[in-house]
Write a structure and sequence with these properties.
The protein is mainly α. The chain contains 12 helices and 2 strands; from the N terminus they run ααααααββαααααα. The chain has one domain.
Length: about 325
Amino acid sequence: MNHGTWLWALFNVFVVAMLILDLRIFHRHAHEVKIKEALLWSLFWVVLSLLFNVGLYLFEGPVVALQFFTGYLIEKSLSVDNLFVFLLIFSYFKVPAIYQHKVLFWGIIGALVMRGALILMGVTLIQHFHWILYVFGAFLVFTGVKMAFQNEAVEIHPEKNLFVRILKRIIPISDRYHESRFFVRIDGKLYATLLFVVIIVVETTDLVFAFDSIPAIFAITRDPFIVYTSNVFAILGLRALFFALAGLLNLFHYLKFGLSVILAFIGVKMLIEEIYDMPIGIALGVVGGVLLISILVSVLHPKKPGTRLPAEVTEHLPNN
């Protein structure tokens, strides 16, 4: 479906307005985000996404609305798995709680730009090389299988990060935080602060995540507007979701297996598209069902004592 330039412009103006409202009014002063505040913000973003979905239903019809909701659900569920990695990054760098929101805010700005570029690239590739869909499908199946069997331990090695190494060649890096600043002058010389390094690591980590999530949504719809908006709404609520679930991530230890099944399923759907064009309702039912089962199993069969998050991670979790 062809959406006019005015609709793209209007949506992006709305996104920019919400980000300015978030940063300049509601979080103008750096503070530690409590779980209650995070839950309210999470609810706000979810309700906003559902209202947008209702608008699609009224103006575009049920099929487009289902496509958006399925894509949003996939992106949102994949982002939950990514939150644990963000938690490890904050723990590794010992980011003060009052600055974590700012890091995630600017990380999301970068994520919106990068994902927009990747979506445009993906749409262009599909239009000119239809066979690329089979590459995407095979990649998702491979990623799903790999996720199911990979070691749960995640290690952070910023010294191996290509962009951090490039940054070191451009500008010296301070080994500590200077309040919420990204750059600081020391003895007249400009330095990048440790907080800016954290931004780089978060951004590049999200870029890796995007290579999984964006091909997945192309199996649901090829409409660039729906692909983009579902990604944006999932990302906009990511900050609040992080602070709301940071203390509960250990409860969802079976979610990884659910996500691996979803990625493999979406990959198979893409591979057999020429043989069987699966209705969007069935795809939504499978995705929602697998997520629900993985969460229920996690709650009913919690991790045994001794398999909790490491102390160096839990000590940085937000307080109630």
